[in-house]
Amino acid sequence: MPLHIDVLTLFPRMLEGFLAESILGKGIERGLLSVKVHDLRAWATDKHRTADDRPFGGGAGMVMKAEPVFAAFEQLQKPGCRRIYLTPDGASFTTAMAEGLSREQHLILLSGHYEGIDQRIRDCLIDQEISIGDYVLTNGTVAAAVVIDALSRFIPGVLGEEKSLTHESFTNKLLDFPQYTRPAEFRGMSVPEVLLSGNHAEIEKWRHAKCLEKTRLVRPDLLK
Ligand code: ADE
Q1: What pLDDT was estimated at residue 1?
Q2: How would you class 121 by CB atoms within 10 Å of its CB: exposed for 0-12, middle for 13-18, buried for 19 or more?
Q3: Domains located in the chain, CATH noted
Q4: Whole-number pLDDT of residue 166
């Protein structure tokens, strides 16, 4: 069975174009994974479809209510599913996490909004909390998109060439080498000679040196 992902959000339309386009769109079309986006308000039962309320104890902003989220999970979750909350105070998302999630059967991604969500949701319903970086987004829907995109690349068949996975940044803990395509000469700038040489051993050596140089410059933390 291919991986199925349920996304719970207050802004389902944010994901429409994202899921239809490009490599991910093709993967979904070909049945390599399936993604269903749900509007959390569908589970809000009052007449204004309220999904948020003021925080107990005071303070700015609104907090996502427990009732609609519990109702949504109770309808969608099945034994063995992995339930993830996207939040800036979660653990930092990595390529290793993406690879692990790509091997699951069923994921539920909850996107947070406002100043946060009722803690009882996190205590009772969530298996894993993920942040996509040290910055705060207006809501977690874009973060859910990032997680889906990154994990989809580890699902066999989604990327055309398996090779494009093994050579890239982070899989081997180094940043990428520079790439060039035709023309060999463009506005007075030429492609490094070695890439035109046909000498594959030399090309590999050059690329590895460039990876090290770039990593040392931009992400020295990866070399430690
Ligand atoms: N929601 C708001 N900011 C976020 C972040 N950095 N990662 C995941 N979810 C978020």
Answers
A1: 92
A2: buried
A3: 3-152 (3.40.1280.10), 167-223 (1.10.1270.20)
A4: 64
The DSSP line for 110-178 is EEP-TTEE-HHHHHHH-SEEEESSSS--SSTHHHHHHHHHHHHTTSTTSSS-THHHHTSTTTSSSPPPP
Which positions of the chain have pLDDT values less than 70?
A: 114, 161-167
Mean pLDDT for all residues in the chain: 94
Digit-coded pLDDT (tens) for 193-216? 999 999 999 999 999 999 999 999
pLDDT at 112: 87
Q: Residue whose CA is closest, atom 5 of ligand 1?
A: 88
Residue 136 Cα: closest atom of ligand 1 = 3
CA-to-CA distance for 84 and 111, rounded, in angstroms? 9
- CB of 109 within 6 A of ligand 1: the answer is no
117 lines ligand 1 (CB under 6 A): no
Q: Which residues pair with 63 in a beta bridge?
A: 53, 116
Record the pTM: 0.93
C-alpha distance across the termini of the chain, in Å: 39
Residue with token string 């109770």: 74
